Amino acid sequence: MKIFISYRRIDSSSATGRLFDRLAAHFGSGSVFKDVDVIPLGADFISTITQEIQQCDVVLAIIGPQWLSATDEKGHLRLDNPNDFVRLELESAFDFGIPVVPVLVNKAQLPSRKELPASIAQIASRNAVSVGHDPTFHTDLDRLIIALERLTERVLEQNPLVPTQTVPDIDPSELDSNLVFVSHSTSDRRWVEEEIVGLLEQSGIKSWYAKSSITTSAQWEREILRGLEACTWFLLVVSPRSAESEWIKDELFWAMHYRPTQIVPVIMEECDLWKFHIRLPRIQHVNFAESRQEARRLLIEAFSR
Hints:
The protein is α/β, with parallel strands linked by helices and 305 residues long. It has helices at residues 9-27, 35-38, 45-55, 85-96, 137-158, 189-202, 210-213, 220-230, 240-243, 246-258, 292-302, and strands at residues 3-6, 32-33, 58-63, 100-105, 129-131, 180-183, 207-208, 233-238, 263-267, 286-287. It has eleven helices and ten strands.
């Protein structure tokens, strides 16, 4: 499973570090996300956080004694700020339908609904897990790990890892020539839905699109690979955000190897194409940044050749 850890450094940094180490040892280091360990230098924090949450199976909200009362440099409650990272993380989890498990550390209590912003108030009604200091720490973590494994089993029973209707389970050589894999940054999702996915649907072209083609409980890497293998075409949405995404670069490298003549770069916003792949600047692209109407026409023509 893939686990996202949400916490406040001022509130529970030490406990979170121990918890991370134990979970990483059990589930694998690549399965546990904690911002300071995973986000590359210079990466957009909010974009990376949103993308990671969308790909995870569960969010652990680490709550310590100062989680609710933490203030900024002006003395304002951090949770009252819509841009507070902890608040944004939980809002994203609830928006994507990701299970959220409150983990109470350092003898903290679960806040009540009236103490919380409405957007995250539902965490007050979630079953919480308490993790104490030594000597009960490891025993408490054992219970948490068992609960996480059971949670995964229940979710997978409800959403088995099978292809969606848009990903045929057949040999790629037998696929519809207009099945398109859409690779894009999570931050660009709204534009992609309106300008690309919507246009393709109107033109009778089927697309494999992460939001609609992957269930929240699915193993992200596995389903991405299934989508890539199932599609004849690879459409890359180019923007400064996607240029910083290692996920998108991995998808593009796969396409360069397996679909070298079926790649269609779509320029959402101008940026350095060399950041994606050394060969990308040589591939003919469709530029929405110059002329939307002309780009729409060229995009549909590209899939008709």
